[in-house]
Design brief:
heterotrimer; A alpha/beta; B alpha/beta; C alpha/beta; A: alpha/beta; Rossmann fold; six-stranded mixed sheet; four-stranded antiparallel sheet; 10 strands; B: alpha/beta; abc type-2 transporter like fold; 2 domains; five-stranded mixed sheet; 5 strands
Chain lengths: 247, 368, 303
């Protein structure tokens, strides 16, 4: 049996009477690309916050990268990577300064930081840009850089929150190349996205409706099960049942 | 007209919805009056005084005892000659020197007239004048006592000399100063961000692509702040009257009129800043550096203009608060009317026209 | 008469250093939904701002409903509806207050054109006393659309209305646009989502300030000249590496659960390729010729 990198069991989060996340259970394997889908207000963000150790569940259990999300939140945080579209890099620092800063946060030694940043820059073909301010990089480059930084400490699992919004199709493809490579090298990738076609890149996807996971399978099986041609249509069939008002 | 009205309603809603800022705007003036008022009275407590008693008779001794008994004063030392006075002040300890003339009691009893000279350190005008006022009231107290006992019109003539700041005539300079500062703070700083905020929040983009009237729009932003500021004028006057018994000798109506004019100047300055800047932060700092600092340092609020070097005095002429403080002092303390203050009023009026002109001219009908 | 004509519009920023639009031309017919499709930084917003008279182009000519965007600024501002990319209503005013405010500045009333917004407004009406800043993304967008429609504009400009909005709300939004089209309103809409292209009557693909093509969605797909293959196996990452190093491959991109591949020669021997992949250890290989999507066309046109 392959290694489980993330295990959740009956994970629940309530805000007063409101059940934001309702009994979700799923396991992720090493090197898997997992798409976490749901409409606004379905509970995606709340679930993700619990998994990255910044929000305490009401009940249920979960281990992430082998650590308990109740008792070992600090260990969880240092063994995962996180990238969000909203915040990823410091615009007013240069490429190399950003790399050094984030590598430093994850406690890499000076020698490791040096090695890692050389490899990273080589791979991203950014040699001539290392002293460029991040603000002046094209969006596609920023996203690749920020993903590479999110996995600079070789985390077991990396969480990507809406990573590829607004980027051109070619850059998006290059971004997915990086994700495939990371997964190939054993990092589990947990990604939330609004692009339904992007869900099809994942090995498995889950679709959340009203705080519950209503479907979880490979894109191929889901399409077969719902007798449709795209994940988009699967999503709409499920989301239409939502009773919760998105706000 | 309906358009103008809905603009005003909208601006008012913005202000009312932001309860915290509204509370601060209404609370600050009251807080400032308390702060300045109480800071002054505590400052005056235990003031060290020096006495040059050229007469050394029963009357002077009684008066000196009264000073010693008063909690505001502490007799520091007795001086021997006029030349000692300067030294005593230079030592920095004393705030007031009292000089009794020769044959004080004799003069008082025989010609019913005697003279006391009060010399104060007016480099800090607020304390200086307050100390003199307290001292005067002690002396008047003695005079009234005598008058009642003997049923004779005794007169002690108190002569004031302000050292280091001879032009200072009034006390309570802090009320006009606080008023000027508060009105500026609220009007200029708050309005300076209102138009920029529309740019930052992108609402300006939608407004521009509509047949809205920019002039009415700019004017409407001023209205609620003017109203708010007039409320503040009222609360400042009210609290300084009931808490510190600060006199209003001139026309209340004129005070309101001049405040209204000053508020308009401040608001139009704020609007001008708002029109030429692109972020709320820049607008805030610009109005702070452009108005708040000069008001604090140059307008005569904290430091008397007379003591400033000439270049500073010249610069202080373009600070609107300078003129406002002169006007309000004139009305409140000296009871002057418009006929004596028209020049200062005219200067503020010209400033208003200038700022409004720039605001309208700089309002951009396209994005930059 | 066309709703919008754009002729050779060029626009630069920072004194000519950054080129936002590079000789852009197209026209939007009256009553159609025209999609401007391209990634962030393609120049979509600059173009919208030029057409809504917010910015002046460096050169070129554009007209909206027959009015010159430079000379007839005031006329245009009366008859267009505009929804900028960033949410641009008053967050501290309620839903109803926002709507009333915008009705008044357009010198109309909510009542007068209520029929136009009714279908959309009823969905947010239960929240009419809620502050706009407290609405969800989808509801904010509906309110913004109501405000842009309240004066019954002739031409509607929607700059990335569906960006960051979840798929359900996006679908609803597009069905609203189709209803507005029935009212005779011409709509120019921009989007970075390629899959929304099929919902437009005509589209222009735009990248780095250049229009790549203008056509109907079908027209664009039909003009795709190469043969496109979808290739799958159980190990996607290895498949990417293997196909990219294959000498006959022209382009190979990950595309959902399969790879989209074009070859230098359309008569490529698929049998040979299949065997080659098998010998590299791939299992469950599937190679099928497919019809390209708009996104494939974009990828092919951009170089």
């Amino acid at each position: 049996m392959s290694e489980k990198v993330l295990i959740t069991k009956n994970l629940t989060k309530k805000f007063g009477d409101f059940v934001a996340v309702d009994n979700i259970s799923f396991d992720l394997e090493k090197g898997e690309i997992f798409g976490f889908l749901g409409a606004n207000g379905a509970g995606k963000t709340t679930a993700m916050k619990m998994l990255i150790g910044i929000s305490k569940p009401t009940s249920g259990s979960a281990t992430v990268a082998g650590f308990d999300i109740y008792k070992q939140t600090e260990l969880v945080k240092s063994n995962i990577g996180y990238m969000s579209q909203k915040f990823s890099l410091y615009d007013d620092l240069t490429v190399i300064e950003n790399i050094r800063f984030f590598a430093g946060i994850y406690g890499l030694s000076d020698k490791e930081i040096k090695e890692k940043s050389d490899i990273l820059i080589e791979k991203l073909e950014m040699k001539s840009e290392i002293n460029t301010l991040v603000a002046s990089l094209p969006l596609g480059w920023k996203q690749k850089l920020s993903f590479s930084i999110a996995i600079v400490h070789n985390p077991k699992i990396v969480f990507l929150d809406e990573p590829t919004g607004g980027v051109d199709p070619a850059s998006r493809r290059l971004f997915w190349d990086l994700i495939y490579e990371a997964a190939h090298n054993g990092t589990t990738v947990f990604v939330t996205t609004h692009y339904m076609d992007e869900a099809e890149y994942c090995n498995r996807v889950s679709i959340m409706v009203d705080g519950r996971i209503e479907a979880l399978d490979s894109p191929f099986n889901l399409k077969k099960q719902f007798k449709v041609n795209s994940i988009d249509e699967v999503f709409h069939q499920l989301a239409r049942k939502a009773t919760r008002q998105a706000d | 007209m309906k358009e103008f009205w809905i603009y005003i309603v909208k601006e008012t809603l913005h202000i009312l919805r932001d309860r915290k800022s509204l509370g601060i705007m209404l609370g600050i003036p009251i807080m400032q009056i308390f702060l300045f008022g109480f800071a002054l009275t505590t400052e005056v407590k235990n003031s060290q005084i020096a006495i040059l008693d050229n007469s050394k008779d029963l009357a002077t001794r009684t008066i000196i005892e009264k000073f010693e008994a008063n909690r505001y004063f502490e007799v520091n030392k007795s001086l021997k000659s006029i030349s000692d006075i300067e030294k005593a002040f230079k030592s920095g300890k004393i705030k007031l020197a009292i000089v009794f003339q020769n044959n004080f009691r004799d003069n008082l009893l025989h010609s019913n007239k005697a003279q006391i000279q009060l010399i104060s350190d007016a480099s800090d005008p607020n304390t200086g004048t307050t100390v003199v006022n307290y001292a005067t009231s002690i002396i008047n107290d003695y005079q009234n006592q005598l008058t009642q006992q003997a049923n004779l019109p005794y007169q002690i003539k108190v002569e004031n000399r302000m050292l280091y700041n001879p032009q200072l005539l009034s006390s309570y300079t802090f009320v006009p100063g606080v008023m000027g500062m508060i009105l500026l703070l609220i009007c200029a700083m708050m309005t300076s961000v209102t138009i920029v905020r529309e740019k930052e929040l992108n609402t300006m983009e939608v407004l521009l692509v509509s047949p809205f009237n920019p002039y009415l729009f700019i004017m409407s932003k001023a209205v609620p702040y003017v109203v708010l500021s007039l409320i503040n004028v009222t609360s400042i006057l009210y609290f300084s009257k009931i808490l510190f018994d600060i006199p209003i000798n001139g026309s209340l109506l004129l005070i309101y009129f001049e405040s209204f004019l000053f508020i308009s100047v401040a608001v139009s300055f704020g609007l001008m800043v708002s029109n030429v800047t692109s972020s709320q932060q820049i607008a805030m700092s610009l109005s702070q550096v452009g108005l708040m600092m000069p008001t604090l340092l140059l307008s005569g609020f904290l430091f008397p203009r007379e003591n400033m070097p000439l270049p500073m005095q010249l610069i202080s002429n373009i600070v609107p608060t300078t003129w406002f403080i002169i006007i309000i002092k004139g009305i409140m303390i000296k009871g002057l009317g418009l006929q004596m203050l028209w020049k200062e009023t005219l200067i503020m009026l010209l400033m208003l026209v200038f700022f409004l002109f720039i605001s309208f001219k700089k309002f951009s009908i396209r994005l930059k | 008469m066309n709703a919008i004509n754009v002729e050779n519009i060029t626009m630069t920023y920072n004194k000519g250093k950054v080129k936002a639009l590079n000789g852009v031309s197209f026209s939007v017919k009256k009553g159609e939904i025209f999609g401007l499709i391209g990634p962030d930084g393609a120049g979509k917003t600059s173009l919208f701002r030029i057409l809504t008279t917010l910015l002046l182009a460096d050169s070129g000519y554009a007209e909206v409903a027959g009015f010159d965007v430079v000379r007839d600024m005031k006329s245009i501002r009366k008859i267009v509806g505009y929804m900028p990319g960033k949410f641009s209503l008053y967050q501290d005013l309620t839903v109803e207050e926002n709507l009333k405010f915008f009705a008044t500045i357009f010198k109309t009333t909510v009542k007068e054109n209520y029929h136009l917004i009714k279908e959309i407004y009823v969905q947010i009406e239960p929240f009419k006393d809620r502050r706009a800043g407290k609405l969800s993304g989808g509801m904010k967008q509906k309110l913004a659309l109501c405000c842009a429609l309240i004066h019954k504009p002739e031409v509607l400009f929607l700059d990335e209305p569906t960006t960051g909005v979840d798929p359900v709300s996006r679908k609803e939004f597009w069905s609203m646009l189709r209803n507005l089209k029935k009212e005779g309103i011409s709509i120019l809409v921009s989007t970075p989502y390629m899959d929304e292209a099929n919902l437009c009557d005509n589209i222009a693909l735009i990248k780095d300030g250049n229009i790549l093509t203008v056509n109907t969605p079908n027209g664009i797909v039909e003009s795709y000249k190469e043969k496109l293959y979808s290739i799958k196996s159980q190990n996607m990452y290895q498949l990417i590496l293997d196909l990219r190093s294959y000498e006959e491959t022209k382009k190979c991109f990950a595309f959902g659960e399969s790879l989209h591949v074009t070859f230098k020669n359309d008569l490529v021997d698929l049998e040979l390729l299949n065997n080659k992949l098998k010998s590299n250890g791939h299992e469950n290989i599937e190679i099928t010729e497919i019809t390209p999507s708009i996104e494939d066309c974009f990828l092919a046109l951009e170089d």
